[in-house]
Design goal:
The chain is built from five helices and five strands; from the N terminus they run αααββαββαβ. With 143 residues, it is of the alpha+beta class.
Length: 143
């Protein structure tokens, strides 16, 4: 009787699926989050280029900051979410002039659906479930 019971395989597939399903779901959600983060990184890089080029031509911080803000919002990224500021042009767009060159750094905090994923992707990220994205652009200042 014991041998007959041990040979039965009914329900083993369901048990195996129950063990593997959480891992599969975590992987699928992680892939989706990474896609959103990569898109946000591309938008932030574009904002840094826009702000750098604008500063190189016009030499005005506020004009370049407004260009970065336009690029962020035009790229579909949110400025604020759930009482969190994700992007503030006055703080998150930094300029550093070095001789004939201007270096622009744009910082954006990308929210994630699951805070644990934010920590897994970037262990130095803040505990509020956001991933900090930074991009720099260097341009030669026009004369």
């Amino acid at each position: 009787m014991l041998r007959k019971f041990l040979r039965r395989r009914r329900g083993s597939a369901m048990v195996e699926f129950a063990l593997v399903a959480p891992l599969l779901i975590l992987i699928l959600v992680g892939i989706m989050v990474m896609g959103v983060v990569i898109n946000a990184k591309i938008v932030v890089a574009g904002a840094a280029r826009e702000a750098g080029r604008t500063w190189a031509v016009h030499k005005q911080d506020q004009t370049a900051r407004s260009k970065a803000l336009d690029s962020i919002t035009g790229g579909g990224l949110k400025i604020a979410s759930d009482n969190r500021v994700l992007f503030d042009a006055n703080q998150d767009v930094q300029f550093a002039r070095q001789g004939d060159y201007i270096q622009v750094t744009v910082t954006y905090r990308q929210p994630t659906m699951i805070p644990l994923l934010a920590w897994l992707i970037d262990p130095s990220s803040p505990s509020d479930g956001t991933i900090t994205l930074r991009s720099q652009a260097v341009f030669r200042v026009e004369r």
